[in-house]
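ok trying again, last paste got cut off:
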Amino acid sequence: MPYAELGLQDEEYARIVAILGRRPTQSELAMYSIMWSEHCSYKSSKVHLKQFGDIPQRLPQAARDRMLVGMGENAGVVDVGEGLAVTFKVESHNHPSYVEPYQGAATGIGGIVRDILTMGARPVLVMDPLRFGDADHPDTKRVLPGIVAGIGGYGNCLGLPNIGGEVVFDPSYQGNPLVNALCLGVMPVDRIQLSAARGVGNVVVLLGAKTGRDGIGGVSVLASATFDADGPARRPSVQVGDPFTEKLLIEACLELYDAKLVEGIQDLGGAGLT
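nice, full thing came through this time. structure:
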């Protein structure tokens, strides 16, 4: 069925039909498959993520006072004193990196850097905790060089040092490598940007790299899918990175922040404008 090719289950398709009162169009089906994907909705993991929601309330008051932005935004922000704030985040790019190691890992760095940028900060460093299967396994030897090169290559193009990493080999990660990327940024405390824009008459601007045919279905049929023998066929679903355009994007956004021209800003990752 067409909806199955987009990663939707039978019961999810039935629910879409019930919501719309008719069969969805191809465009609607694609939108639902994206917004209901694990990548965007955390439909299978949100029950676990909610357990972390009350952590700020359990912290000492002094620590809570320093937390300027918590869960719900593109990244967390902490007041480090002297008028400066630090924002940081870790995210994974596991399945894309397994299917296409270099581009999967490279675009993982690109995505986490944009999250930091949209908080109002200048990205200053990256890190990469990695997990692979048995070191001598042919599949580990296939993915490891490309993943390491993708992380380092993209960061170098952005002028960001990789100040540390961690690599663990264990058979439990065979065929399911964990590719985690961390980025940290620094900004004045009065330059924090949020994703929600308010007010009448604001201009909506979409900026960044041109849309290509690469990455189509990356959220619904790749990032949220299981690991199987069809991996090579999904390579076109992995986005091709463009670090040089992202470097220009960083500088442009920082100029806009300094000019106080931004009401709200959101990184458009795998779901694009959906």
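cool. The chain has one domain: 62-258. The longest helix spans residues 138-157.
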